[in-house]
Structure formats: structure tokens, C-alpha cells
Amino acid sequence: MPSKRSVAQQAAKISKSSKIPAALHSSRGVKTWKEAVDWLKIRGIEDIECITPDLAGVPRGKMMPTSKFTSNTSLALPSAIYRHTISGEYPDETDQFRYDSRDSDIKLLPDLSTLSIVPWETDPTAQVICDIVGSQGEQINYTPRNVLKRVVDLYRQKGWKPVVAPEIEFYLVAQNDDPDYPLRPPKGRSGRSILGGQGYSIAGINEFDELIDDIYHFSEKQGLEIDTLIHEEGPAQLEINLRHGDPIELADQVFLFKRTIREAALKHGIYATFMAKPMQGQPGSAMHIHQSVVEINTGRNLFSNVDGSPSKEFFSFIGGMQHYVPRTLAMMAPYVNSYRRLTPDMSAPVNTAWGYDNRTTAFRIPVSDAAARRIENRLPSSDANPYLALAASLGCGYLGIIEGLQPTPPTEDTANEGEIDLPRGLLEAVSLLESAPSLADVFTPEFIAIYAGVKRGEFETFMQVISPWEREFLLLNV
Q: Where does the GS beta-grasp domain lie (predicted)?
């Protein structure tokens, strides 16, 4: 049996060959199945992972030999994978939350523009993100990628195109196989666990130089572009900023980045976690979303008038965020743990305020020129499914423009102290999601029913667990 050539060797071969079409030099994506066959062949790819995000953003799908993938094979999954909780359980049916009585097949439809290698695999392996359609090719409304596509299409019908730039925070933590023990920071290259208060510290980043090198290396191999990487306030808390672009492409990137960062961390014997609040007393992890809207025909930023002043659409977008984001918070803060992050005095917004260059507000307007005017939504947590968080944020702004909603005056003072002006827990957030008819028009009633049913199921599973707080304060006192 001949020895297998590494992906790196294949890449070198590709770069030296002048006979290979230019499109096949790309590290990410092809346009046609013919190009896909050639792309896989010249890289010596043996296996391919056909993946798609479930409601939690977990990759689901099938792995197969390349020969099967390129032979027009029909790829199917059971529809039930979009109705189970993060712990793998299936909630009871309600009037709104129902299972397909036959658990019919849904089909994986590869999006060839997402084709890339899997750089951490020892055998030459590729991956492709798939859309979901029905067994007859019909639209499936409740899958995360389709939910986001629906929102983007609402903008397109108005002649607009949303532009986003996510920022994802995460923690590196020491490996821990016992969930009863609190997480702790890992040891860096100095041999000591890094402490908090390292915001923007280069030394903090340097503690994990080799791991970060692998993140960059893995990302480059997949055609993923990192804008900047910084150390955040928490111990071993990092943030990756992505370049602005199309919402679906950026959601795909966040989906793959999460997987990439976890794999790079495992290679170095530590965990990477995107939990919203992994450590008590430390800052939580957010997924801030910068967003603007441009006219498709002209490229003009819809948030700016010709003279450079803020437009009425800019203010209505903010008004839509203020009115609807609390009603969609379950899509941006999807777990019980998410609401532990949204607490006063912990560097997270607890309000619906907006302001110019004010990081204590939920909706911050960064300093920029008129062409780059944008709105930063600081409420989503990093545990959110990126497709659903982007869909929710953009959907709220869209409704604001369509309904002509007006915002409150901008906030100039500190806004993240005192009372919490948001749903305080998951069940309250889910009820608000179900209560707004306009949201059903944007996301479809079917999606909201399934999502709400799964979230309530997760809450009931959480309620079965007795916490250390209960044992500490109730065991001998009540």
C-alpha cells in the first residue's frame, strides 16, 4: 500500500503546478461539481465530512470516502436531530412543539463554496457545509442556516444587503473530566496559570504562542480570515475578530472557527470553551456583532445620508434593536448559563440602551466615517449558534426599519449598573420570543415552535441537577 502524502505536500504540489486552473488554487470553495472533483483529486483527499449546524450550532452530518461524495450520492439525516436538546434528550410534545410522526428524512445539500480541508486530521480529509432541504427538495424553515438565509432574503427583497463582523470571546481552561469541580485557567509557557486583568496584554497572548500559531495555521489552511486576536479581561480569555462581510459566510466562519479553536486547544492538552460564563467571578464571553446595511445597486451605506449624517434607517434600525432584541434574546443567549453573564458590573450590558462609543450599552456606535457607520450589538454570548444570533440581530433591525421604530435618546453615562432591563432567565426569554407576531413573520412559526420546545426541554433537564449552592445553603439550614 503506497504511503499517504500529507496535506502540506499536496499544497506544495498545487502551488508549483501551472497546469491547474486558477480556481483550484483556492484553499476554500469551488463553483461546480467538476471543480470539486478536481479540487479533491489534486489534494489527495480520501475522506470528506458533510456537516451542518444543529440548533445548538453543533456540527452534525456524515463522513464518507471521496469517491462516494462525488458519485451523486443522496445524503439524508433524520429530522429529529433538530428537535433534541444539547444533552441529547427529546422533549415532550406540546400543542406547538411536535415531532414528525414518521421522522422523515431531510437531505444534506453540499454548498461547494464552503469546501475546505480539515487540517488537524492525520489522513487527507476535507469538509463541506451543507444546507438542509426536504426529501423532495422543498424548503425546510427550521434549520439555522435556512433561518439566516430567510432574513438575508428579506433584506434583498428591499434592495439591501446586510454586512456583519463578529467578535468571538472564549476561555482556555485546564482539562477537567469531572463536572462537579470548577474550571481553572491552564498553565502557559511560563509554567504558571495565567491570572485575570490581562486585557490586551501581549504577554498574556504569548503564554499560548504555540497554540495560537496552530489556530492561525489551521485557519489559513481552511481559508478562514482572522482580523485580530487579543487577550481579554478574564484569565486565559481570548477574543478573535473577523473581517466584515456577508452574514452567511461569516456565520459559516464562526461555525468553523469554534471547531478549529477547540481542536487546536486539544492538541496542546487544554480545553477551549465558548460557555457564556465558565468561571464564577470572572467576565463572561460574548459574541459581539457589528452590523450595517448597504444598497445592492449603489453600495451606499444605508445608515448614512449623502451629506454623511445618520439616516432615518440608522435610527430605525436602533429602534428595532431596542424593541425586539429582548424578544429574541433566547436566540442570542440560548442556555441557563447565558444569563449568568448578563449581570451588572461584569463588563456585559444589562439594558437596551444605545450610545456613541459607549461600551456599557447594549448597542454601541463605534467611531467611524459615514461609509463605515455601523451598530455593534453587544448582547449575544459566545455560546449562541452564530446563524441564529445573526438572524435574530439582523431581523430586529429589519423590523425596526420596516415599522419605522424610533430609539430612545443616546446614553452618555454608564448604563450597565443597577437594574437588569432584559429577560432574567431562559424561560422568560422563550415566552417573549413566542409572544411577538412580527417575529413569526421573520423566522416562521415552525422555527419558533421547535426552538421554544427544545429550550424548554433543556431547562427541565437543568432543573434535575442539584447545584453546590443548594447543598451549601439549604442542606442544614432549612
A: 40-137
Check: pTM over 0.70? Answer yes or no.
yes
Give the range of the structural domain holding residue 45, as residue numbers without chain letter.
Answer: 19-140
Region 445-457: mean pLDDT is: 96
Overall number of domains in the chain: 2
Across the range 16-33, mean pLDDT stands at: 76
Q: Which residues contact 262 (CB under 8 A, 6 or more apart)?
A: 271, 272
3-state helix, strand, coil in the chain (%, to 5): 35, 20, 45
CA–CA gap between residue 332 and residue 349 (Å, rounded): 13
Report pLDDT for 3. 42
Query: Nearest-5° angle of CA 14, CA 22, CA 3?
Result: 20
Shared-domain flag, residues 253 and 337: yes
Residue 4 pLDDT: 41
Instruction: Examine residue 270 and state whether it is found in any structural domain, yes or no.
Output: yes
Give the Cβ contact number of residue 370 at 10 Å. Answer: 16
Give CA–CA dist 268/210, Å, rounded: 8
**Separation of alpha carbons 135 and 108, rounded Å:** 10
Check whether residue 409 and residue 293 sit in a common domain.
yes
Among the candidates 120, 140, 160, a domain finishes at 140
